[in-house]
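Researcher: Here's my situation. A collaborator sent me these components and asked whether they could plausibly form a single complex. I don't have experimental data yet, so a predicted model of the whole assembly would be a useful starting point for our discussion.
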Amino acid sequence: MDDGEILELFRARNTDAIAESQKKYGSRCHTLAQNLLGSAQDAEEAVNDALNAAWDAIPPACPRSLGAFLGKITRNLALKRLRDANVQKRGGGILPAPLEELETCVPGGARVEEAVEARELSRAVNVFLDALPRDDRRVFLRRYWYFDEVKAIAARFGFSESKVKMILKRRRDQLAAQLKKEGYIV
Amino acid sequence: MKTDLLVDAIGDAREEYVLDAGTTHPKKKPAWLKLTAAAACLALLAGAVSLSGLLRGPGDYMLSERSENVRVYRLKDLPKGGVSASYNLMKLTDEDIFSSDTVIFRGTVTDIENIEVDMNGESFYWSIVSVEVSKVLRGGLTVGQTVRIRADTPIGGDVDMWVEDNGIVSMLRVGMEGIFMPAPYDADSLFGANGAWLCLGDIAPYGFRDGVRWVFLRTETGLVFERDATYSIPGAHTLEDIETYIRAMLEKTATRP
């Protein structure tokens, strides 16, 4: 079933919309959630929450891409679970490797300026992504949007793992420099 | 986490970028196959490559230390034989375009230089377009200044190459007037391929993000730009019409909440 047909089910309030979305995008969303949460059970719960959130959102939401829409909800919900769990552990939880790597963008005692509006920071990140060569942008987003393992990224694009690590390091440094220059990191 | 805001901001990456990263791409040939092919070719090529490297010298552009394993040559003639490249054009709305950080100016093409970028043995064919500025619509340029812009395609009447999504830029000719919207490069604008890195600012201070959406041209056959797919400007027949449209879009995007 294509996205248009599934979206029609959502609009008609037909619960098959959830089953069809699960069938088409459940596996990808599950992988994304598991990359973050580490546990298949937690990932399954995050995906179920995402499908329910999509049911609540459509309509009025009318996503251009159902896959991207579900992916983003899953990502946000999985991050929320991770943060909630870390709060319960009083910040003592172990971070997934991609998030640890992003911490290196904010060195030492520095922090992302909290007064910065989230929208401004999103704009700055998109400007950074605009300027990247396509391969590098895909590698960067596989790691920090989808939270893939380096090995999986290398296999997906036919690169060596060392090349993937080199791209990620260069681009993290580039992002950190840009954010610092623009005053987002203080 | 001190990077929560940053992680969330990455989550707001443009949808087309996220989808592009999510598509499955054909895997490259297995390493053993490439090695076999490479071994077969090595004996034949070794002499020629070393000879051509000696003959061609260090390249025609002085590159900074940020560029690694790359040489850039000015070309008089382009290689024949259907060299092609393909780029996946992301969807952008006109508001996306005018919200981005490009300069916008009207001007006349004064020079086009085709170049070969040798990335560790893998060649890319681009061009550098020089444009004399006659009117500034956005950005810190001055009238009379010449702006050099990198394009992802070689340009010229006899070019026997095909580069997807460069249909409008490849129509550029010396003397042609247009409105140009290139993006500025900085020290962090890098192009990487085949283990080599080129700091794009080493060869031009600006570049077209693709070859169709960042230029409006007045040609012998009329006004040329990316009609319909990106811009809907009914009744646009002259560069003045485009100027009016751009000024309205700049006003609209500047006041966008």
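Model: Some features of this prediction you could bring to your collaborator: Residues 3-52 of chain B form one domain. Chain B touches chain A through 40 residues (CB under 8 Å).
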